[in-house]
Design brief:
136 residues; 6 helices; single chain; 4-stranded parallel beta sheet
């Protein structure tokens, strides 16, 4: 049993090794936050598809960032005010927390915080779209 556990630990460590410099150089550049497992937390493709299908898009940047440029279909709810304004999102989905909601910001960090708040409030389909420009 000990040998089996040791083998699994070794295999897991091998899977977490950094990719070679050559593989990294050929991979497309990615930006945005990562979770504790090293996975990207944004999904711009899913966000674009959901927004095109009519899902509400919530921009959690500051008013100043919004004023400098934003998506026409997005609603501004700064992340600093988000917890107190979830009822506005409830209204956008007609109270149906199973409907998808897209959250965007400048890079994906603040939208990940807002996503966590919506999931804690019972929402079932919340997509972190990352950079707002990804949905243009």
């Amino acid at each position: 049993m000990f040998a089996l556990c040791l083998g699994l630990l070794a295999a897991g460590a091998a899977c977490k090794e950094e990719p070679s410099a050559q593989a990294s150089a050929s991979a497309p550049a990615r930006s945005g936050p990562i979770n504790a497992n090293g996975e990207r937390v944004t999904d711009p493709a899913a966000a674009r598809a959901l927004a095109a299908a009519g899902a509400p898009v919530i921009d959690v940047r500051t008013q100043e960032e919004w004023d400098a440029g934003h998506l026409d279909q997005a609603k501004l709810i700064p992340v600093t005010e988000f917890a107190g304004r979830i009822s506005e999102i409830d209204a956008l989905v007609g109270g149906d927390k199973s409907k998808p909601v897209v959250i965007i910001c400048r890079s994906g960090g603040r939208s990940e915080k807002a996503k966590a708040m919506l999931l804690a409030a019972g929402y079932q389909q919340v997509v972190n779209g990352g950079r707002w420009e990804n949905l243009k």
